[in-house]
Amino acid sequence: MTSTYGAAQVLVASNRGPVSYEVGDDGSLNARRGGGGLVSGLSAIGPDAGALWVCSALSDGDREAVRRGVGEEGVRMLAVPAEVHADAYNGIANSVLWFVHHMLYQTPLEPVFDAEFRRQWASYEEYNRAFARALAEEAAEGAVAIVQDYHLTLVPGMLRELRPDLRIGHFSHTPWAPPEYFRMLPDDIGRQILTGMLGADRLGFLTHRWADAFTACCTEFAGGLGETRIGVHGLGADAEFLRERAHRPDVEERMTALRAEIGEDRRAIVRVDRTELSKNIVRGLLAYRQLLDDRPEWRERVVHVAFAYPSRQDLAVYREYTAAVQRLAEEINSRYGTPGWTPVVLHVKDDFARSLAAYRLADVALVNPIRDGMNLVAKEVPVVSDEGCVLVLSREAGAYEELREDAITVNPYDVTGTAAALHEALTMPAGERAERTKRLAAAATALPPAQWFLEQLHALER
Ligand code: F6P
User: Fold this and answer.
1) How far apart are CA 254 and CA 163, in angstroms?
2) What number of CA atoms fall less than 13 Å from residue 257's CA on the CB side?
3) Facing residues of 372 across strands?
4) Of 16, 277, 279, which is best to mutate to test ligand 1, by the most ligand atoms within 8 angstroms of its C-beta?
5) Contact 312 CB / ligand 1 (< 6 Å)
6) Is the minimum distance from the CB of 266 to ligand 1 under 6 angstroms?
7) Whether residue 436 sits in one domain with residue 329
8) Separation of CA 147 and ligand 1 centre (Å)
9) Residue 152 alpha carbon to ligand 1 centre in Å
10) How far, in Å, from the CA of 357 to the mean position of ligand 1?
11) What is the pLDDT of residues 135-192, one digit of tens each?
């Protein structure tokens, strides 16, 4: 298919694509299209431009779709062998690169870069090579290819060798590790990652902090940036989509149900996350527990609504973290709960309509990650909030760069400080809260997904 932006064809590459398949009981394949920033970003070049999205088959259903030759227009799914994908995705991308960039290791015992790591690294190379080859095959002369994220750091360099005529961009949706942490990687691997990325004409990051960390790594370990340019594009919330979606009947229904769970006159401290190690859900619960201890006047008058949706459950450490979140929520409920009051309402089943309902009725949104590329929840809540919502925001979230002035900011490790911030948030006068929410919503929507994507395309024009 030919797709155009200006005169150039546009290709996007990412691990997770815009569509996934499930095999039904009768053997038929059901397609599910996902949302997200990249999907709405791509729509900016128009539905008829038909950009090509190269992504990976993630599930058995996806692999079956590739085997049967079933596909969506504009999407090419790569079925690398399941074991290769597992090594590359679970082994390297999520257990090493994610941990490095989010600084998640408990360093007395990990990481261990041994023979098993080297074996998995070979799969990561193979996985990246499959993407580079597919892009090289599909791209017209002079096309623009924008590669996404830490799963595909080697693709720009590999693609540059195969197709020097292309304009290549890469965008990181995660933080980037500072040199003192990045240097934990074996020297040759660290260099390979940096030179792989530097195969791009231009690299995009969500904040200046992550862009500066990348530049510092290149200065220290790769002899500088060379010809590669660096840009910062702070992906914003999609206000138009969110406001329309948040007022559909399914969201209204869930608001009624949630309000009944919380109780008519009670305040709601809301958080919505994947159950992700970097999101700091456990310390959020500890801070809430401390609030109930330090300020007993809040007992019976507030509920912590925590949505913690399953993520990366193939990894034991994620399963353990999920269990820890559930255990602590139960502990708080059994210690403080009364017949008419459940202090923590925890939901683990992903339900977008219910998340929007929680955004609308939240009095306080708790976004306290220990490190986060951006955190779109921080940007989405103020956009859809009905009556204004106070944002308690970690200084380690990318969103801090744009939202700090009107949020109550916290050190995510400081449970006592976070408890105090929750109290301050709950007691903020309604007028101030509404004013701050307005300003937060304006900052949060400064760069909607479509513009975010177009900015990168413009910047890649020669
Ligand atoms: O931020 C990086 C990212 O790949 C995002 O695109 C997404 O929010 C998240 O991680 C999803 O992770 P996974 O694809 O492993 O579920």
Assistant:
1) 50
2) 13
3) 397
4) 16
5) yes
6) no
7) yes
8) 14
9) 13
10) 23
11) 999 999 999 999 999 999 999 999 999 999 999 999 999 999 999 999 999 999 999 9
Residues 171 and 246 in one domain: no
CA 161 to centroid of ligand 1, rounded, Å: 28
Judge if 304 and 351 occupy the same domain.
yes
Residue nearest atom 5 of ligand 1, based on CA coordinates: 173
- Are 453 and 356 in the same domain? no
Residue 68 has what pLDDT?
A: 96
Give domain status of residue 2, yes or no. Answer: no
Residue 190: domain span? 10-235+449-461
Fill in the DSSP letter of residue 140: P
CATH of the domain at 24: 3.40.50.2000
* Shared domain check, 225 and 253: no
- 49-69 average pLDDT score: 93
Residues 440 and 455 in one domain: no
Residues 187 and 61 in one domain: yes
Tokens 């693709």 map to which residue?
155
CA distance 446 to 239: 10
Q: Specify whether 356 is located in the same domain as 439.
A: yes
- State the pLDDT confidence band at 462, using cuts at 50, 70 and 90: low
Mean pLDDT, all residues of the chain: 96
- Which atom of ligand 1 is least distant from the CA of 38? 6
Cα(263) to centroid(ligand 1), Å: 34
What tokens were used for 346? 């925890």
DSSP letters for 142-191: T-EEEEESGGGTTHHHHHHHH-TTSEEEEE--S----HHHHTTS-HHHHH
Residue 183: how many CB atoms within 10 A of its CB?
15
Kind and range of the H or E element at 365? strand 364-367
Note whether 364 and 430 are within 8 A (CB): no
Distance between CA atoms of residues 363 and 387, nearest Å: 8
Looking at the 3D structure of the chain, how many domains does it have? 2
* Side chain identity at residue 376, one-letter code: L
Lowest mean pLDDT among 29-38, 239-248, 300-309: 29-38
DSSP state of 139: P
Q: Chain centroid to CA 310: how far?
A: 14
- Is the separation of the CB atoms in 17 and 33 below 8 Å? no
